[in-house]
Every structure is written in structure tokens, then in C-alpha cells.
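Hi R.,

Here's the chain you asked about this morning:
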Amino acid sequence: MSKIGLYFGTFNPIHIGHLIIANYMVEHSDLDEIWMVVTPHNPFKKKNSLLENHHRFELVYRATESYPKIKPSDIEFKLPQPNYTVHTLAHIADVYKDKEFCLIMGEDNLKSFHKWKNFEIILEHHDIYVYPRISDGKVATQFDQHPKIHKVEAPIVQISSTMVRNGIKEGKNIQPLLTKEVWNYIDEMNFYKK
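And the predicted structure, written out as C-alpha cells:
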């Protein structure tokens, strides 16, 4: 049974930081593949800077095309909104019965994991792979030595999608932060310019 790590994000846009982490996780753990799950627009939170779902999916598709172990996923687009990770995990496990799904998250998310809807159910059924992030606060003791939570010493990447969007808006050259394919699409479509 292949083991899939689910890496959720708005990927607005996907940048090399996301790829560095996804690639590190798949190459330095027992995961067979990483699925980059593009989270849809939350209908209750209209954000002008958030590209349409299909554009963000296209960016992830282009960014991951040359990485056979990293795949884009739009599985959440078809689920009722607003959606919770626990529901996505249940749905995805139901659709792909021949695969084992794990969750990938940054250490900053682990610090607030106890606030997630039905986090106990997630932990009961899924392993969690955590990559380091510089952030305030501490990881709750209950997660510190938990047998289903695996810390992976991935590189700490301090690049954010906000940084990329702001750079484009300010007319800065942010090309080194994106793959060529992603930059070309953003440039061609005039995204994030205003």
C-alpha cells in the first residue's frame, strides 16, 4: 500500500519553498508521494488577492510536472464548503482505498492543532509529518512525543506567497522564488500586479 503525504495550501502562488519542503519530505521519509492539495476559495472569506481555484491548480500542476513523486490535487474543489481537513481525509481515504494518507504540516500548525475540528479523529487514523517553521509559541505536550507525529528535519524556508505577491505588485524581480513555469504563467496572465 503506497503512503501518500497530503500537503494542503492555498498555493497563492506556489513557490520554491513549497517545492523544497515537498521534495525533502518525499525523499527523506517513508512517503511514496506527496499530493499538493489546493484548498478552494472559502466562500465566506472573499479575498481579492486569492486567484481563482483553477488558476492556482494550474500553477501547482506546472510547478510539479517535472517531479514524478509530487502531484497536484484538486480533490477539495468538489467538496462542500466551508470544508474541514477531517472531512477531506475521510473522503480521500474512501475514494482511494488502496492508499494510506498522512498529513504534512509546518510546526506552526502543530502548535494550534488542538484547535482543529476533530483533531483526535485525524490522529487516530492518520500519521502527521511535521517540518520545522520559525514561529512563536510551543507545541502542546500531548503532541510532543506522540507516536503518530513524525518530525522531519527539513530545511527551514522563510519564503511566503505574500512576499511573492507583494514583490510582483511592487515591480520587483521575484523570479528566483518561483519555478520558470510558474513565473511564465503568472507573467503571461498578469497576476498579482495590482
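The first helix runs from residue 16 to 27.

Let me know if you need anything else.
M.
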